[in-house]
Amino acid sequence: MRAVIAWILLALAASAPRTGPAAAPVRPGREVAVTFDDLPGVSVSKAGASGETAALAAMTSRLLRTLGERHVPAVGFANTGKLGPAGSPSPERLAVLRSWRAAGLELGNHTFSHPDLHRAGLSAFERDVELGEPDLRALLAEDGGRLRWFRHPFLHTGLSLGDKQALEAFLAGRGCRIAPVTIDNSEWIFARAYSNALDSSARALADRVAAAYVPYMEAKFAYFERQSAAFFGREIRQVLLVHANSLNADHFDEVLAMLARRGYSLVTLDRALEDSAYATPDRYTANNGITWLHRWVLSAGGRVLPGEPATPPFVLAAAGVASE
Ligand SMILES: [Zn+2]
């Protein structure tokens, strides 16, 4: 009997769609929170702009128009070091960040200068977190907001449990909650390839990168939906990490259309983190900045699902990145 059941299960598994975005693309009730890192911007093309700050402002205005039209309750994570010296930010660059607030969006701290915790060490890293706060807190206070969120650069959370927990306590003491990521991806490589191509007037290459971007992101969603179901027995509320860049300014509407097609609603980060999945123990202390889904699997002694989508070689080459 047991053999028969096993055979039936095997037959069912074999007939089910196995991999790729085509596997059960639509499931109403899916939820995702969208987060943007490296504000005011990274991989921003300067083509057609009168300077770096003007390019940042133009990119931000296009991105915020997309987010506004689709009512995306996004959170942006800022590196205030990109605004100028701590305590005296450039008014023009501060205005770029202020436009996120004017669009009704949350802002969190992503440190002052984007240091790598695993290289800088805990003390130096904490000083950089503090350095990033005052200008951000002042900006948020202009409209009655307060600083509530923190995102680790490179998703590096500590090479020892001691460092990891000390940083968690340090952040909690400053009123900041860590924003985890479940839909991790290499969108930043696509974005670098895209802005490189635009800046060198390689329009056809930029278009090719953009055309590969949405299918790649859909494959990532399909993979993490499967990983979520494999570990939790259900699809959890996901958190997407992308960046404030020219690629998303020009093409994030297509990512949003893909998400709508897959049955996603766009929810706040608060709502996503109300999912009990986010209380799962995370004891991950290796050097890679990986999805929290894999941290939870590895912390439980499990094995991650094979088949995580990779970045196409032509995108890596156009970005000048040797490997993911
Ligand atoms: Zn970052």
Keywords:
single chain, globular, 5-stranded parallel sheet, about 325 residues, binds zinc ion, TIM Barrel, alpha/beta
Short description:
This protein has 324 residues and is of the alpha/beta class. The chain is 49% helix and 10% strand. Bound molecules: zinc ion.
Number of strands: 7
**Contiguous helical run count:** 13
Bound molecules: zinc ion
What shape does the CA trace take? globular
User: What share of the residues does DSSP label as strand, in percent?
Assistant: 5-15%
Rg, alpha carbons: 20 Å
The largest β sheet comes out as: 5 strands, parallel
The first-level CATH class name: Alpha Beta
The helix/strand series, from N terminus to C terminus, equals HEHEHEHHHEHEHHEHEHHH
Helix content: 40-55%
Q: CATH-wise, what's the superfamily?
A: Glycoside hydrolase/deacetylase
Low-confidence stretches: 1-22
CATH architecture: Alpha-Beta Barrel
What's the domain count? Answer: 1
CATH topology, what is it called?
TIM Barrel
CA-to-CA gap between the ends?
A: 47 Å
Q: Mean pLDDT across all residues, rounded?
A: 93
Structural class: alpha/beta
